[in-house]
Amino acid sequence: MKREMTKEDKELAAAGYEHLEDHKAKGDKKIDSDFDNVDISEHRLSFAELGTTLEAAMDTKDPGNSYGLSAEEAKARLARNGPNILTPPKKKSAFRKYFDCLMTMFNILLIVAGILEYILLGIDFKNNFANTYLGGILIAVAFLNAFIEFYQLQKSEAILASFLAMIPPSCRVVRDGTLSSIPAADLVKGDIVLVRVGDKTPADLILFAATDLKVDNSSLTGESEPQERCAKPNGSDVRPVEAENLLFNSTLVVNGEGWGVVVRTGDHTLIGQIASLTGGETGNASPLSIEIGRFVMFVSSIAIIFAVIFFVVGITTVYKGKAAQTVTFAVSILVAFVPEGLPSVVTLLLSIAAKRMAAQNVLVKDLQGVETLGSLTLLATDKTGTLTRNQMTVTNIWSGEKMYSAFQSNNDNEDTAPFSIDAPGMRETVDIAALNSRIKFDKTDVPFDQRQILGDATETGLSRFAGRYLSDYDEHHRKHPKVFEIPFNSTNKWALVILEKSHAEGGLTSYIKGAPERVLAKCATYLKDGNAVPITDDFKAKYDEAYNYMASRGHRVIANAQRLLPLSQYNHTTKFTKNDGEYPSDGYCFVSLTSLEDPPKHGVREAIGTLRLAGIKVMMVTGDHPKTAEAIARKINLILGETKDTLAAKTGRPVEEIYDDEVDAVVVHGDDIDKLQGWQWDQIFAKQEIVFARTSPQHKLEIVKRAQALGHIVGVTGDGVNDSPALKKADLGIAMNISGSDVSKEAANMILLDDNFASTVKGVAEGRQIFVNLKRSIQYTISHSTPEVIPQLLYVVVPIPLPLSAILILVIDLGFELFVALSFAWDKPETKDGLMRMAPRKPVNNRSILSLKKRALRRTKTLRRDTETQQVIPPSKLSVWASKVKAPFTSVFWEDALERSENETLVDSKLLSYAYLEAGVIEMVGALVAYFVVFFKNGFSPSDLRRAQINGGYFTKSSSDFINYKGESLNASHQVDALGQAQSIVYLSIFIIQCFNVFAVKAKFSYPFGKSIIGNYYNFAGILAGACLGMFIVYTPPLHVVFGGSVHLSPLYWLIPIAFGVLLLAWASLRVVLLRKGMEQSRVKDINGLMMFPTMRTMSMRSRQQ
Question: What's the CA gap between 179 and 454, in Å, rounded?
Answer without folding.
Answer: 10
